[in-house]
């Protein structure tokens, strides 16, 4: 059986919350960029349609933010990924011993992990990472097999958790992300 874990990290369990906070700020910044691009592409027709649907008068920046958020929410519910609107990000987390093992679900190529997060990627379908010793590579293989990979049977000592950083596909959306984006994107100045 082939194992391919191209992005993964090992962090001390006592640093897990700090790791999530470190990543969250980057993902929110990325989400803001995506929403700003969506806002810049909103047509006059979309804006006028939105104005007609509201019973009360709202600022243009508020209406554009809401239209952009709706587009991002719709994209997050789709089976197909749309990088222009893809903000959702989740970590699969396995707790084992003194460490947590993280595999991301979402765009992570440019993610800067904190200094205590050790790259723990592993694959057996091609040559090992040249920056990792043979002993370290074998240890990664054994750990991923123990946790969940290989035979598909997880260790009784490892429990998988799913931690959502941004999850707009959830039934009620992601209140924290939406609230933060409204704060960042809606012009609060009075007319």
Question: What percent of the residues sit in helical stretches (DSSP H or I)?
Answer: 40-55%
DSSP strand count? 7
Q: Biggest sheet: strands side by side, in what order?
A: 5-2-4-3-7
| Count of spatially separate domains | 1
Detailed description of the structure:
It is built from five helices and seven strands. It is α+β, with helices and mostly antiparallel strands and about 190 residues long. The protein has one domain (about 5-185). Strands 5-2-4-3-7 form a five-stranded antiparallel sheet. It has a two-stranded antiparallel sheet with strand order 1-6. The chain is elongated. The chain starts with a strand and ends in a 6-residue tail after the last helix.
Topology:
Blueprint: E1 4-5, E2 9-12, H1 16-40, H2 44-53, H3 60-77, E3 89-96, E4 99-105, E5 118-119, E6 122-123, H4 134-147, E7 159-166, H5 175-185
Antiparallel strand pairs: 1-6, 2-4, 2-5, 3-4, 3-7
Helix pairs in contact: 1-3, 1-5, 2-3, 3-5
